[in-house]
Amino acid sequence: MWDNFSTNGYNVFNESFRIYIAQIQLQSATHRKQIFYIKDITVTQQNEVNIMPSERLCYRLMTDKDVDSFYQLDQDPEVMRYINGGKPSSREEIETVYMPRLMSYTNFAKGWGMWRVGLQPNNEFIGWILVRPMQFFSKQPEHHNLELGWRFFRAHWGKGYATEAATQIMNTLSVDKDIQYFSAVADENNLGSIHIMKKLGMDFVKKYLHKDPLGDTPCVYYQKTTE
């Protein structure tokens, strides 16, 4: 692990972000060397959130390097039914719209982003869990209120995986005392997702128009207070 990461005298400890630089200098307690012309490197801080494996599942935060996984999951019209009426996502949409969107709220230190869910023991990709502040894309994101979402391959529906994964992630992130709520939204006809919300201990709050840069959607809103 690097003890210190320095770019022209600017120290990076607490942020995850993409940088474009001509020269970086790596400093550690045991070595010092220079690397020239490194383009498009992703910096992840040392204190990133780690979600431990649960009974059947394992986790890691996804990045824009996971395009293939996102694409494969979005090809089933039933998976997309309550997202956009059942239209599979194109690779171009994923690369040009959804990946920049994902990276805009991914934060390794806070555990925000999309958590890849793998099925043990082979770490087979079966879906993801979304974590980000509610109203993230508005002028007033709710950093004390984390939105949870989920999407899984249909072959893995009805087995409790979404509930297990969301519970494990929620329990880990609730250690942060600044987090007061976990919330989720869904189409009111998406009874499967609503069932998961209830299993997570969330209660119905309201029906409302969920506003998003990709389009506003009528939704039901469920929420759980952290203990």
Describe the protein's architecture and organization.
Residues 57-227 form the N-acetyltransferase domain. The chain has 227 residues and is of the alpha+beta class. The protein has two domains: 4-43, no CATH class; 57-225, Gcn5-related N-acetyltransferase (GNAT) (Aminopeptidase), CATH 3.40.630.30. It is 21% helix and 35% strand. It has helices at residues 67-73, 81-84, 91-105, 161-173, 191-199; strands at 4-7, 10-11, 17-19, 23-27, 32-36, 41-43, 57-61, 113-119, 124-134, 142-152, 181-186, 203-210, 217-225. A hairpin with a 4-residue loop joins strand 4 (23-27) and strand 5 (32-36). Helix 1 (67-73) packs across helix 3 (91-105). The model is unreliable at 1-46 (pLDDT under 50).
List the helices and strands and how they pair.
Layout (H helix, E strand, L loop, with lengths): L3 E4 L2 E2 L5 E3 L3 E5 L4 E5 L4 E3 L13 E5 L5 H7 L7 H4 L6 H15 L7 E7 L4 E11 L7 E11 L8 H13 L7 E6 L4 H9 L3 E8 L6 E9 L2
Parallel strand pairs: 10-11
Antiparallel strand pairs: 1-2, 1-4, 3-6, 4-5, 7-8, 8-9, 9-10, 11-13, 12-13
CATH class of the largest domain equals: Alpha Beta
Mean pLDDT: 83
Major pleated sheet: 7 strands, mixed
Q: What is the gyration radius calculated from CA atoms?
A: 19 Å
Which of globular, elongated, flat, extended, rod-shaped describes the shape? globular
As a percent range, the share of helical residues equals 10-25%
Number of helices: 5
Biggest sheet strand order reads 7-8-9-10-11-13-12
Number of strands: 13
Report the uncertain regions: 1-46
CATH topology of the largest domain: Aminopeptidase
The CATH homologous superfamily of the largest domain is termed Gcn5-related N-acetyltransferase (GNAT)
Secondary structure category: alpha+beta
Q: Give the CA-CA distance, first to last residue.
A: 34 Å
Estimated share of beta-strand residues: 25-35%
Order of helices and strands: EEEEEEEHHHEEEHEHEE
CATH architecture of the largest domain: 3-Layer(aba) Sandwich
Q: How many domain units?
A: 2
InterPro entries: Acyl_CoA_acyltransferase, GNAT_dom, N-acetyltransferase
Domain N-acetyltransferase: 57-227
Pfam families: Acetyltransf_3
Organism: Pleionea mediterranea
